[in-house]
Design goal:
The chain is of the alpha/beta class. It is 42% helix and 16% strand. The structure holds pyridoxal-5'-phosphate (PLP). Pyridoxal-5'-phosphate binds next to helix 5.
């Protein structure tokens, strides 16, 4: 049996390679951070979601060790059987406090939070109205549920309004959007989305995975940027990006919604609890980013500095409101050559092209972090400038 199937897979894999879409893993032999070791070489890292520089934080490592000593290594249970420690409850309360919401439910990942949010809450008489660039986990979560589906063009308010009008036929409707879209770094226009939601009687869900810790003066995400704290029914997010980068996700929002998810959300009911060390490090992390805004401030000033210098150097940068800086090259092959040349200069970035971004919109995505020091930013800008001139991208 496997002979046939193996042949089939081999052909498919060859087709992926021939199309230039084969993904290879680069193996890192150091801790995650601004400077990492890849293939025996030290490089500066500009492609991590480690926005607040906490992935290798001594304070979080201490908190994780402390929990291992007092609460053990793993839970060997889902939450509602014997997988809930005081640490899990405390972390859920910290998350709600941070976002100004009523309650929180933890998951093993944001992928699970999104995968398990729609099916328990909405039925076939309802409507989900989703931004076309929403994360894959939202798309999968919607697929697992029964409501009528509408899709509006990325951040396009006229299209959203059309879909809201159409959805008046359904019982309840919810607008679903990422807070920050990961390829351009643009934010969802939450002020306008809230206006339309009020006008057409819709609920709102925001996935703050890329925006939490990053966007807003104190890093509370797009609800802070648009002054909507406490007004959004459902927020999902990850502990795997700005918030320490280990693992874990959450849904936070209105109490009754979280209550219902604890009764019926399948990834919560049928998948393991996050380990005590992650819960305890999470608690410490929310304390750290609540007591001061030192890391958030450094991230914002790093991003402003980098974008300003890159514009000065003559690069074409997508307008950004996050820590994502898209350096537009428009040509797929050029984006790969550019990224390879930068790696030789000791700068690790990824070039993206179709189908990850629209055809003809190839780019290099730079992700800034509070872990970067100004000398490292300067080194990256100098390398971009050198390679940009060599490849005739800038004069
Ligand atoms: C990264 C990301 C996720 C997935 O987060 P995990 O916790 O790694 O599963 C979900 N949604 C968005 C918008 C993301 O950027």
């Amino acid at each position: 049996m496997y002979t046939d199937y193996k042949e089939f897979l081999t052909k498919e894999l060859t087709a992926i390679k021939d199309a230039g879409l084969f993904k290879n893993e680069r193996v890192i032999t150091s801790a995650q951070g601004a400077e990492i070791e890849v293939g025996g070489n030290k490089v500066l890292n500009f492609c991590m979601n480690n926005y607040l520089g906490l992935s290798n934080s001594p304070e979080l490592i201490d908190a994780a060790k402390e929990a291992m000593d007092t609460r053990g290594y793993g839970m060997s249970s889902v939450r509602f059987i014997c997988g809930t420690q005081d640490l899990h409850k405390e972390l859920e309360a910290k998350i709600a406090k941070f976002f100004g919401t009523e309650d929180t439910i933890l998951y093993a990942a944001a992928f699970d939070a999104n995968g398990g949010v729609f099916e328990p809450l909405f039925g076939e008489e309802d409507a989900i109205i989703s931004d076309s660039l929403n994360h894959a986990s939202i798309i999968d979560g919607v697929r697992l549920s029964k409501p009528v589906r509408y899709r509006y063009k990325n951040a396009d308010m006229a299209d959203l309004e059309d879909k809201l009008k159409l959805s008046q036929a359904q019982r309840y409707r919810i607008i679903v959007t990422d807070g920050v879209f990961s390829m351009d770094g643009n934010v969802a226009p939450m002020d306008k989305i809230k206006e339309l939601a009020d006008k057409y009687n819709a609920l709102i869900m925001i996935d703050e995975s890329h925006s939490a810790g990053v966007v807003g003066k104190t890093g509370r995400g797009v609800t802070e940027l648009f002054n909507l704290k406490g007004e959004i029914e459902i927020i999902t997010g990850t502990l795997g990006k700005a918030f320490g980068g280990a693992i874990g996700g959450f849904t936070t929002g209105k109490k009754e919604i979280i209550d219902m998810l604890r009764q019926r959300s399948r990834p919560y009911l049928f998948s393991n609890s996050i380990p005590p060390m992650v819960a305890n490090a999470g608690i410490r992390m929310f304390d750290m980013v609540s007591e001061t805004t030192h890391l958030q401030d450094k991230l914002h000033s790093n991003t402003d500095y980098f974008v300003a210098k890159m514009l000065d150097a003559g690069f074409d940068i997508k307008p950004t409101k996050s820590a994502i800086c898209a350096v537009m090259l428009y040509d797929a092959k050029l984006s790969q050559e550019f990224a390879s040349a930068l790696l030789k200069e000791g700068i690790y970035v990824i070039g993206f092209y179709f189908p990850v971004v629209p055809r003809g919109e190839a780019r290099i995505r730079v992700q800034l972090s509070a872990a970067h020091e100004q000398a490292q930013l300067d080194k990256a800008i100098a390398a971009f400038t050198k390679v940009g001139k060599e490849l005739s991208v800038i004069k």
